[in-house]
Design brief:
Blueprint lengths: L1 H6 L7 E5 L9 H5 L6 E4 L2 E4 L10 H5 L5 E5 L6 E4 L12 E3 L9 H22 L7 E6 L3 H12 L4 E5 L15 E3 L3 E3 L3 E3 L3 E3 H15 L4 E2 L3 E6 L4 E5 L2 E10 L6 E2 L12 E2 L12 E5 L3 H11 L5 E5 L10 H12 L3 E4 L2 E6 L3 E6 L2 E6 L2 E4 L3 E2 L2 H6 L4 E4 L6
Parallel strand pairs: 6-16, 7-8, 7-16, 8-13, 18-25, 19-20, 19-25, 20-21
Antiparallel strand pairs: 1-4, 2-3, 5-27, 9-12, 10-11, 14-15, 15-16, 17-26, 22-23, 23-24
Helix pairs in contact: 4-5, 7-8
Bound molecules: flavin-adenine dinucleotide.
Amino acid sequence: MAKAREYGTHEPVSIHPYIDPVLCIGSGACVKSCPEKDIIGLSGGKGKLINASLCIGHGACASACPVGAITLVFGTAARGVELPYLTPHFETNIKGVFIAGELGGMGLIKNAVTQGREAVDFIARRIKEEGPSREGVYDVLIAGAGPAGIGASLNARKHGLKSLTISQNDLGGTVLHYPRHKIVMTSPVDLPMYGKVKLKETTKEALLGLWKEVFRKTGLEINSNEKMIGLKNEGDWFRVTTTGGEYLARCVVLAIGRRGTPRKLGIPGEELPKVAYSLIDPEQHRGHALLVVGGGDSAVEAAVALSDGPGNRVTLSYRGDALNRIKPANRERLEKAVSAGGVKVIFNSNLIEIREKEARMAVGEEAVTIPNDYVYIFAGGELPGEFLKSIGVRIEKMFGTPRN
Ligand SMILES: Cc1cc2nc3c(=O)[nH]c(=O)nc-3n(C[C@H](O)[C@H](O)[C@H](O)COP(=O)(O)OP(=O)(O)OC[C@H]3O[C@@H](n4cnc5c(N)ncnc54)[C@H](O)[C@@H]3O)c2cc1C
């Protein structure tokens, strides 16, 4: 716990378990069941949070606890977290507008697929009760084709709904941006039109291949590279505006994730083709001078992966003065890479310009120029909160409370 405090990982950021000290009997089932490492431990015979900010909401601890002492909650009394209001059927305050997947506050592929599927089960029931949609009106429009959009789209097909799926990128969502051959951990999940998927541990490529195959077999198509930009309630339906046109739909499932659009630094040279916002194939780099910008897990993972390439010289630039909130395993890997000379970390630095063969940054008061072939920026994303507010979805602040 002291180490977690030192690393700044002890404070919950969003979702995390609340362990009721009165009910807890210290069985340790929560500690053993957690797929992440050292999030919960036993102290004084009771379950205690250690690296609370690293919790990503598997919920295995709550299911494993023999006495029901664990509840998954969002935020803390001191630090609220903003999430869209949702009913148990994933409907927002706007009747007919649903949110599934990470946008609702819960990460992980299995949760996202399940929520997309369940939201559409509810929509199908409602449409059956209220009667068919008018000609030219979709029963459901699904925005986003990550795991939540995939679950929703396949289930819409299964229920025979008139549906349309659009996505800002291609089928796969965030999974498309995982590094090449990344090991993906996912618990068994029920995929409509396919059945139970029991891939406990798979790769990015295998998972994307499976989804493509299921879509091909069911004849489902998505409108890729089409972004939803607006929504207007017109009584019996919604008018959905996208970068490709306008559609009428009775229900809308927002499965657009939380990552939004990668945040840009807004500096000269950022438009150069050598600049990227995700690292998909570190192996393409050999003998390169590489600059990684950011202080989170993604930046650290990228810097370490790039340092493995023969002859690469990696600089990690971070505007803060310490790397807080990164996973302990990443911290260890980074420390190893730094001592082996593979990565140089520059704290208190801000990139100010990217040129063909170099990068300029402000380090404290000083301007420093370093040789550079490629830049990878991990500065978070422009989160979809503003978009949700603009279409009237109510956002509420949660202070250590469970969802529904
Ligand atoms: C590096 C990394 C590794 C991970 N590893 C794992 C793992 O091993 N196991 C696991 O279970 N989870 C893992 N996760 C988490 C998992 O990827 C996410 O929880 C999951 O992808 C969430 O699914 P989603 O459908 O809600 O959102 P996303 O997958 O983010 O999909 C959202 C989709 O919506 C699109 N979109 C966004 N805005 C719009 C718009 N306005 N209009 C139309 N489309 C839009 C996006 O382009 C995207 O296609 C990992 C995440 C990361 C970043």
